[in-house]
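call fold(seq) -> tokens
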Amino acid sequence: MDAPPNSDQADRLAISALRDAWVAAVARGDARALADLVTDDYEVWAHATPALAGPDVVVTAMTAALTKYAITQSYEPVETIVAGDWAFQRGIERIRGVPRDGGPAHEVAQRALLILRRDEDGRWRYARGMTNGLPPA
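ret:
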């Protein structure tokens, strides 16, 4: 039988589960599920777009995107640092959007820096994020 994970391992597993929940919600087109995965004061700065702040804004923006596109997303962590009730993760995000009304798919690969916070209920949630494009190959 495996030993129970230590606190750092448990936190990393919970952070991975959070990422998996986000990716799954996007894949099934469930923008409303994303509200529970972010903090009340969540803010993300996406490349060349206005900041998105708060769960309601995330749901509204993602509902609009998911109405227009079937989106698949992946995130490959490069580094994860857990420091108490905060965690920092940097990695590569890949997004593929297929227009629901036809047309070619749009694909984006970008760097992402995510800041997560363990809320009072003990669950990890996304608190901040920032993305920017990868340099040309």
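The chain has three helices and six strands.
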